Amino acid sequence: MAISSFGKILTVLDLFSVSRPIINVDIICEELGLSKPTSYRYLKELVSADLLKRINGTSGDYTLGSKIAVLDYISRTTDPLVQISTPFMRNIVERTELCCLLTYLNDDYCIDIHHEIFKDTELLSYGRGCPRPIYVGSSPKTMVSHLSKQRMQDYYHRYQQELKQSGFAEDEPSFIQRMRKIKKQGFYFSQGEIDPNVSGLAVPVRFSNKEVPLALTLVASKNRFDFLNVEKLIEILQENAALIEQRFMELSEKGEI
User: Fold this and answer.
1) What is the pLDDT of residues 204-246, one digit of tens each?
2) Which of 38, 99, 249, 255 could, after both became Cys, cross-link 34 (CB 3.0–4.6 A)?
3) What is the pLDDT of residues 177-190, one digit of tens each?
4) Strand, coil or helix: 1
5) Among candidates 243, 249, 188, 241, which has minimal Cα distance to 219?
6) How far apart are CA 204 and CA 43, in angstroms?
7) 183 close to 151: Cβ distance less than 8 angstroms
8) Alpha helix positions (H), the chain
9) Is 18's pLDDT higher than 50?
10) Predicted confidence (pLDDT) per residue in 36-89, tens digit
C-alpha cells in the first residue's frame, strides 16, 4: 500500500530511539532514501507541528519536540485501558511486591502502555514507552498465542531465525504447537529471554473478541522468582485480568468508554 505524503513525513519519527535521540538531514537522506530538499521540507513540517525541535547552537541537529510530551501526557491520563487497569495493577504490586506491566502488541514490536513498580525497583528493559522485540519474553508470546493461524505463520516466517536461535521453535509446526499450548494454559513464564537476570510471567487481558489481547505481566529477577509460588502468581494475575475485563465491559455497556 502506498504511503501518503503525511505518512512519509511521519516516518522521520521512526528514526529516533533511545540510542539515537538526535537526527539530522544526512541521517534522513541516508536511511529514508530521500533527497536533501525533501528531507529539509519534512523537517520544516515536523518542527512547525512541534513534533521536532532544532537544537540551538548546532549545524542542524533535531530532537523530539514538546508535542510528543503533550501527547504522552494525554495518553497516560485519558487512555481508558490504562485508567481501568491501573488500580488492579497497583493491587497486584501490593500483593506480590513485584513490578506489573500492561503491554500492547504492535506489528514490529511490543510496548508497555503502563507499568506499576514495587518501591524503587528499576525496570531496565521494561516500562511505559520502551519498545521490545516480539519474539522473546512472556508478554509478546502470550499475545501472539491468540493470533489467527495465518497471522501466527506470518509472524513465524518473519522471525524464524530469531526463534530458532533462542531455542523456542525449530520449525513452523513446533512453533504453532507451542503457541497453542501457551494459549490453552493461559499464561507464559519466561526466564532470561530479554535480560539474562530477569523473568516474566504474563496472562492475556481481552478487551475485544476482534482484537489481540493485551498482556498483564509480572517482572522480577530470576533469583526472586526462585523463591515465589508461581502458581499463586498466575492465580493473582488471572483473577485481576478477569476483573479488568469485567470493568471494561461494564463501562462499555454504559457508554462511558
Assistant:
1) 999 888 889 999 999 999 999 999 999 999 999 999 999 999 9
2) 38
3) 999 999 999 999 99
4) coil
5) 188
6) 40
7) no
8) 5-10, 25-32, 36-48, 66-78, 80-96, 138-144, 149-165, 172-185, 222-225, 230-253
9) yes
10) 999 999 999 999 999 999 998 777 899 999 999 999 999 989 999 999 999 999
Domains of the chain with CATH codes? 3-66 (1.10.10.10), 78-252 (3.30.450.40)
- The residues that bridge with 23 in the sheet, in sequence order, are 62
The length of the chain is 257
C-alpha cell at 91: 493491587
Residue 127 and residue 115 in contact, taking contact as beta carbons nearer than 8 Å: yes
Residue type, 226: D
**What distance in Å separates the CA atoms of residue 174 and residue 153, rounded to the nearest whole number?**
11
C-alpha cell belonging to residue 147 = 493470533
| Calculated CA dihedral for residues 77, 79, 80, 86, nearest 10 degrees | -60
Buried b (16+ CB within 10 A) or exposed e, 94-112: eebebbbbbbbbeeeebbb
List the end-to-end C-alpha distance of the chain, in Å, as a whole number: 32
Burial class of residue 27 in the structure, from the number of CB atoms within 10 Å of its CB (0-12 exposed, 13-18 middle, 19+ buried): middle
- The answer to whether 105 and 147 have CB atoms below 8 angstroms apart is no
What one-character-per-residue DSSP string does 70-92 give? HHHHHHHHH-HHHHHHHHHHHHH
Q: What is the pLDDT of residue 131?
A: 85
Cα(16)–Cα(39) distance, rounded to whole angstroms?
15
Q: Alpha carbon of 218 to those of 5, 15, 150: distances in Å?
A: 41, 30, 29
Helix axes 80-96, 66-78, angle to 10 degrees: 70
